[in-house]
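In keeping with the milestone schedule agreed at the kick-off meeting, the structural modelling team has produced records for the first pair of proteins. Each record is given below as a sequence line and a structure-token line. The laboratory manager (R.T.) confirmed that both were archived under the project's standard naming scheme.
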Amino acid sequence: MVDPDWFATKRLTNREKCFATATKIVSVPIPNTANYGEVIVRVTHAGVQASDVIQMAGGYGVLSNELPSKEPNGMVQPGDLGCEGVGIILKLGEGVNKKVWNVGQSVCFGGFGVSFREITMVPATSLIKVPNATPEWTAFPVSAMTAAGGLEVVGKIRNHPKQQPSVLVTGAAGGTGHMAVQFAKHVYGAKVAGTCGSASKEDMLASIGCDVIVNYRKSSSVEDELRSAFPNGFDIVYDGVGGRIGNVGRKLLAPNGVFVGIGSVSEDYSDTEGPKEGNQMTTKSKLQKGQTETFFFCPAGPTIIGQEAWADLIDRTKNSIASGKVNVCLDEESSSFVGMEGLYQAQERMRTGLNVGKICVSFPPSSGP
């Protein structure tokens, strides 16, 4: 839960983004029963991502217009954090369809402030069945759906007129980026370029089939290197970095290209100092006639394409992961992030940008209902 005394005074002034100083661990009662239409879940693993800090700073969700509760209780409340979780159902509330859900079932779920807890209560409508409550499924409800959704809902890659569209993914070795590379390449048949910032990230991208890899820390000109490999530009640019690197993507859009923004991790973890690593954008490039730029926010997916089409995309995305067509690469440090204290180590890992793949935290079983 976010420290309410700190948050109440700082939230609206400088939008602090330091997880270590803006949050604290608290103990709350475990609910005896689940609310109507909800289930109680023992969280086994939680995903960590930039969205956690955006939410914490009041960027979206409940905390965008409501301060944290000062008196914590057993319910998920304003101030709780965590956008991706995996766990096992412990109890069903009244109104939950027992033909669909049962105690002991492995599930994953997304949302605002539901997974950085050992025990959580979530609406049954937010649950997705998974084969096992294992860490790779932390990447599914937000990271994978943001990847597949951004490419398909906004980028229209599934119905692209070109047999092999060209796709650029910035921040390609991150939790969402490496999923976007694989969905574009292995599910939609695109030719894919990815940008990253270390040799270990280059190796991971090569292992998942990225066609062209540009390390922005080694390249004398990211723009020139990408332009040489893709002289006709990119049909889709999938950008999660923002700043200068994101702007390179705008410059390299094909005549009818689509720029899909999903965030700006270079700024999300930069505190109040602005973008890190020389990624400041001086002047935002203007798009040409026929080119488009859209921001994709995963929770808006059902509204954009309809609930039925979104449910179909969820099923297809889950099947791609379950079948091994898309591989969730877990950051090697994630195995050492355990318990509520591990969340702070994981957030620091995310802040440094050293992670290769998806970061997650494991919660070992403890006494509970």
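The second protein of the pair:
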Amino acid sequence: MRSKLIATLLGTFALSACTGDDAAEPPGSGAGRGSRDELDAGGPSQGGSSGDAAGPGSDAGSDEGETVQDRCFVGSCVRSRLPPQPELEFLEDMGDGWRRLMEADWELAPNSEGYRCMTLTLPEDVYISAFAPQSPLGTHHSTYGVSPVPGGPDAVVACGVSTAGDRKLQGSGAGSEPSELPAGVAMRLSRGEQVSMNLHLFNVSNEVLRGRSGMWVKTVAPNDVEFEAETVLAGPLSLDIPIGRSTQTGGCTLRSDATVYAVGPHMHQTGVYLRATAATSSGEVLVYEGDYDFEHQVSHDIDDVQLQAGDRITVECTYQNDRDRALRWGDSSLDEMCFISLGLYPAIGYGALPCAN
């Protein structure tokens, strides 16, 4: 179960959304961002609304329409509404070269966290050269996967962390910014495949949160693509984080030659620093190191790192645990993780993970 869950969480983590209607500001403008202080205080943000402010659907906990019981932070919490979804044009032009791949409206009851999943069957081939997550207040992360054939009708539903496609596309985290692939590199989506968005929502306020989450992309012509890329995840599958400062280590071994062009660290709220290295035939290679900010999870472009099958990626995550208990591995925002996503090419595609934990 845990290995399946880990495979689901590939990508540069956390989330996407614009305002509660079809209009949206360009990516990178800061629309939809909210600080942890705002979330704790239950204050509204540009990308989501709280309480009685206007937003899609009606108040959580209503007896009318479909609702779902999410995970509660307190002894009990009211149910969240699953709002009706708007009909959106596929690859609608959002300005400055960006096109909307997919978006979903959501609501989350006070003092709860949960998952929402959206599926979209592709009507045409698409070659993606850049990603722009739309990130409202209340999103912890979102991941995007692709399945070769639809697993069912396209829908937006309550789900769990392990719901995702078979091939990993991209992901994002709180505060993520647009990211661009190298020239001549793109991620391919084929007509008839089904894209899945797995969205983790987190609301510690006393008000209902509402938002719209999704992904915008830039596309290129097939003739402009030399290499197809994919995203994989490296890190430990279990954690035991004591009170105070400590470092946890894990990793994976590459199954094929690859060029790594971008990385995306992912921990939760007590993570403060991440370092990733590769053990190669010519010695240790530094892939990435830097401070970590849960509120600003970004994909970092790096100088190309050439790796070979059998090279070992090691990830070291440092935590400052000021809580009154040890922390374990878990999907909740109140637990912890230790991963780095690797943007690499060429892609292996379906049936084989390029990095084995």
